[in-house]
């Protein structure tokens, strides 16, 4: 049965991957709700912008009236809530915006969804029965792991380290409270570090690719031994859709790529791919690696046990880190217009007018 999905933050990195996957590989209708902050880029959705099942609404999730209008107009079956401020360094420089979007915005969206769901119980009980609110979160809410062996599970206690992860932890708690107190049919997923095409260039992997190509230093925090579990964004998008359509209400699902890598190892792998694909005469991209002062409160290791989603929903990642990283580097080499427009800011001139 075809459903209507509202995807908040659908012009962001993960959100746009979800929108593209929904349009390309399902029959569902998609309403992309995005405020279009610096991280929202409609050019990431150029391939689906004119599709009959795609609609774009520029709106802020903190604006309750705007959200009510979106719900009443489009009558969603599924909410996939990805809209969030998500960059740790930015959260250290300015925490207030993270609290506003991630905490206040989520509470507004929950209340609008609850009112809409209650109205469905009166007017369309079958549709109310199928309604889902899927909240997309991060493994950073768990803090960091001690030693090299442990893994985050769905029951790992929360211990956020940064203003960003604290704001996401807060929103996770709100979602679960709305499910427990009001019965709102919610699901939560927590993912590891994403990478892939259309990734905003301030993040580690695209930053290293583009700085490498430009002959600039490749900054590595501290000694570069911080470990992350890397998840290819298109694998993540497939997992999210599986959870939203087949997950059990009230459950949490951890999504990981089974790819634990130290940051320095990731940077060196990118350098080696660049050297293979765009060789430098007489020098190596690894020569550009520069160690910089570590950021405050930097977690040392994240790693996810993704066994539950595999056992219960049958999802496993299709990409290894090696295949995904190669696809990512090749995408940036082939799509210079996209990232150059991000770097020079011209992508922000594109606002309304894309989408049906």
Descriptive account of the structure:
Residues 351-356 have low confidence and may be disordered. It is globular and about 70 Å long. Helix 2 packs parallel to helix 4. The strands form three sheets. Strands 3-2-1-4-5-6-10 form a seven-stranded parallel beta sheet, sandwiched between helices. A three-stranded mixed beta sheet has the order 7-9-11. Strands 8-12 form a two-stranded parallel sheet. With 356 residues, the chain is of the alpha/beta class. The chain is built from twelve helices and twelve strands. Helices cover 43% and strands 16% of the residues. It has helices at residues 13-25, 64-74, 88-93, 95-123, 125-130, 163-182, 204-214, 233-246, 263-277, 307-313, 321-334, 336-343; strands at 4-8, 29-34, 54-58, 78-81, 132-138, 186-191, 193-195, 218-221, 227-232, 252-255, 260-262, 289-292. The relative contact order is 0.14.
């Amino acid at each position: 049965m075809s459903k209507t999905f509202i995807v908040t933050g659908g012009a962001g990195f993960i959100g746009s991957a979800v929108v593209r996957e929904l349009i390309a590989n399902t029959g569902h209708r998609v309403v992309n709700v995005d405020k279009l902050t610096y991280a929202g880029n409609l050019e990431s959705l150029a391939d689906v912008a004119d599709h009959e099942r795609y609609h774009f609404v520029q709106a802020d999730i903190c604006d309750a009236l705007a959200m009510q209008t979106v719900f009443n107009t489009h009558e969603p079956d599924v909410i996939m809530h990805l809209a969030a401020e998500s960059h740790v360094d930015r959260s250290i420089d300015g925490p207030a915006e993270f609290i506003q979007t991630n905490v206040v915005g989520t509470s507004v969206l929950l209340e609008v969804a609850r009112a809409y769901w209650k109205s469905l119980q009166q007017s369309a009980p079958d549709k109310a029965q199928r309604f889902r609110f899927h909240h997309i979160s991060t493994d950073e809410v768990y803090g960091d792991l001690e030693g090299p062996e442990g893994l985050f599970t769905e029951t790992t206690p929360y211990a956020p380290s940064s203003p960003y992860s604290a704001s996401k932890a807060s929103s996770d708690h709100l979602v679960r409270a709305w499910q427990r107190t009001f019965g709102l049919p919610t699901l939560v997923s927590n993912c590891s570090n994403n990478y892939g095409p259309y990734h905003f260039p301030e993040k580690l992997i695209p930053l290293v690719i583009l700085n490498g190509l430009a002959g600039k230093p490749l900054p590595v925090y501290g000694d570069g031994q911080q470990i992350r579990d890397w998840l290819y964004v298109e694998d993540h998008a497939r997992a999210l859709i599986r959870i939203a359509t087949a997950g059990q209400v009230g459950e949490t699902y951890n999504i990981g790529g089974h790819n634990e890598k130290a940051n320095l190892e990731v940077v060196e792998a990118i350098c080696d791919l660049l050297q293979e694909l765009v060789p430098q005469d007489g020098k190596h991209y690894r020569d550009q690696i520069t160690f910089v002062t570590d950021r405050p409160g930097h977690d040392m290791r994240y790693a996810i046990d993704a066994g539950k989603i595999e056992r219960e929903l049958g999802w496993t990642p299709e990409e290894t880190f090696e295949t995904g990283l190669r696809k990512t580097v090749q995408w940036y080499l082939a799509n210079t217009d996209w990232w150059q427009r991000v770097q020079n800011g011209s992508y922000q001139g594109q606002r309304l007018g894309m989408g049906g």
